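Submission sheet (multi-component)
Chains listed below:
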Amino acid sequence: MDYFAQQLINGLVLGSIYGLIAIGYTMVYGIVGMINFAHGDIFMIGGFIALITFLILISVGLTAIPVILLVVLLVSMAITALYGWTIERIAYRPLRHSFRLAPMLSAIGMSFVLTNYSQVAQGARVKPIPPFIKGGYTLHESANGFVIQLSNIQIMVVLTTIVLLAIFTWLVSRTRLGRDMRACEQDQTMAALLGVDVDRTISMTFVIGAALAAVAGLMYLLYYGLVDFFMGFVAGIKAFTAAVLGGIGSLPGAMLGGLAIGLIETFWSAYFSVEYKDVAAFSILIVVLIFMPTGLLGRPEVEKV
Amino acid sequence: MSEETILSVDRLTMRFGGIVAVQDLSFAAERKKITALIGPNGAGKTTVFNCITGFYKPTGGAIRLSHDDGRQIALERLNDFRIAKLAKVARTFQNIRLFPGMTALENLMVAQHNALMRASGFTLLGLIGVPTYGEAEKRAIALATDWLRRIKLLDRADDAAGNLAYGDQRRLEIARAMCTEPALLCLDEPAAGLNARESAALSELLLSIRSDGTSILLIEHDMSVVMEISDHIVVMDHGVKIAQGTPQEVRDDAKVIAAYLGTDEEEAAAVMEGGT
Amino acid sequence: MTATSHETTKTRRSAGIPFLLKTAFINAVIALVLFSLMIGIRTEAGSDGQLTYWTRFGDLASLVAAVFGGSIVIELLRQWIGATGAEKLVPASVQNGVSFIGRYLAPALLIFTLLVPVIFYNQRYILDLAILVLTYVMLGWGLNVVVGLAGLLDLGYVAFYAVGAYSYGLLATNFGWSFWVCLPLAGILAAFWGVLLGFPVLRLRGDYLAIVTLAFGEIIRLVIINWQDLTGGPNGVSGIPRPSFFGIPIDNSDDGLAAKLGIEYSPTHRIVFLFYLILALALLTNWVTIRLRRLPIGRAWEALREDEVACRALGINTTTTKLTAFATGAMFGGFAGAFFATRQGFISPESFTFQESALVLAIVVLGGMGSQLGVALAALAMIGGFELFRSLETYRMLVFGMAMVLIMIWRPRGLIGHRAPTVYLTKAQAISSDLVKEGHG
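Outcome: structure written.
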């Protein structure tokens, strides 16, 4: 039981990170209908920028951890968001009204570019950082000596995710930008006719998605204590799986899917085998889609005849 | 079900969530006749079509198709493609659904898929090039050519379907449905978007299809077409049948006039005069 | 959309030098922010695991300067050409010329390919490269059945390539079965997996299908890595036998092919044999595909790509039609995999990553979906181009990714943008790709 509770905590933390990345996929899919294959790499770039900012801040002698974290968060969000914006401008906007497969391949190409760009720029080796946020709480200690740990970093990841989701939900449901985004999702031509700046709205979608991915990158860096140039691929596929599992286009679905993938992965590793955790996640995706072809929270597709 | 009935719809009900699109609808279509299904927009006509052709599974009721040889088929139990394949019901769509990147001829060849599949020994014999397949393909091309001639598109046979004019596409879609050699042809607003001359040509085409022995079920807004060619008319409004009979009977039916007037006065007037 | 972009063109043209400098300056500032940390700072883990960093402001400055200069050049080019979009870079006459040449290009290319081992007999490198290109031509043609004809998006094609490779590798090393027995088996097993995957998932539409096939490709790769007892895990399978000339080994021994023919043995014999083997396999793929297109099943595939609902209304069983497309594509992938295994003599999971799937898909899309000649040309351009940049080493994938983006912007519909009809009454007219649909599945 204790073991189960501990895995539950670990799974929720991992799921929060996947969920943050998955939101970027689902937003872009909802609004432009394309799989942004480069999004996983955006997450990786976010992790790298966070890492470099950390290094600089520490080397200039800053010691107050909350200040460091805040600065790192803002810098990595800002720069990564600019990456998202630039990629949309260069690789996707020229293909907006093109054939379905063209933007997808452009995105795959962009993903290769980003992966190898960071390999060239920062080298192929794994980059570790010392643990910044130490300590935690012992929730429960059983008779046989097993303890359920809740570390501070885990609390931070979950809290940050909740706060970001709250801001994000407010943004989508209450602001002008959110309304524009929802309008573009329904019908871009009509939205444009009604005075919505479609180009700007789509750009903002990429910017927000990239910023959330940057947060996920920072969380990953803090939680696992390392980044490498290839981490975007696996995390990206998992997060996309999460988005599809939750029902692509649905924002709560992305978060739910992220949590589901995080939990499946953690429990599978804990109770069955670590080696097959990804196989389990992908297999469950396939099984869910067979029975719920539009994911957990996706709108059922009504075929117009 | 009498000898003359090809299709009988019995207490058909279709619900989408809480919305009842069709309720307890019963009517019959006679063999080798043209039956029209009319009614104001949103009356549930296309839903009835989709139930008959298997694109929707009806919530309740029965749809029976009886073939010349007396075979009876329960359509509500079949999948869409089996209805076309086994029950020999063909249909067209309100928004034309041709294969735009394929030529007119290819469109008509695809329609003969099942017959050609058998002739090609489910691909294996065709792959090694048995002569029987070659002959079957020649016959298929002959049938397609025949239909292209009938719809006056023989000279456009090798043009992409997507490049044809709107009216030509409408006729090609009917020809494609006919190439499946159906017992019952269901047409969803075949005259929509056609000009007067094209509508007249369409009426002529449908009458010739009927005289060849194919029964037709028709949804149409163009009353000039409906009144001219229909043998029997079923009028629907808000998912229920409000009247049926010959064109003359329906035209004089108070409920029908009310249904059209009730929706929009001008539209009703225009419709009854035979405009669009 | 067109109207507004046209307007901006006009304003751009009249804007002149201040505008040019302003655009370049903005781009340079964006580049500065983007590259500031990633290029300006280089991190590295030291020997004690401690992270250190050093600055590279020189590199950063030159990169930003390059963006500044590059923006000016691109902007000038754009104004000079007319800024109506990259597609217009190729004049219509050239595009028509390409399709005209196309008729003679295919036979010419085939004759040249047949002669490659004769012309380049002493150039082992070129022969090896040619074999690689032909392998991708075959993979491209195989995937083309699924993506180009049936319009089903398959992002996990490499799974079937892997199934084929491991089928041969394992059967040959464990049971000593010959290549010629295993080749059809590899195809059948791959097709079997195709059906197994396809059966439940083919009712999914569009991107759901894409992600499921991607997941399937990853599952196969992960199982290969982790099922060490069977597959050797990351170490792979080695010592896979080389193919024989229908039982006669191609080696230096007394019963070798060279000895039987009474000629002196040379290692090139095997390479030449492999060359003609993959050429034969690729041409088989091509022949089968061309024939299938003219059979009802092939027409149904294309009809499915055009409009699935209409297919069902015509009595076509869309599930089995999709399954056959999937299985046919998978089978060719399996053949290619078996060839890959026998050529390399060693296979490991590293050869079957998502990047391979993406590469083959890129070849199909760049070729112009559905065009056999286009796919062959695209494979030649992609794999050949990839080799040209071999000296760039780590920059190679970077350049490759950029090329993919640029090619898609330049020609979103691929090199050969026409569809040839499968049957005609009087004259076969090429159909413009603008009319041809891509499918939703």
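Remark: Chain B has a mean pLDDT of 84.
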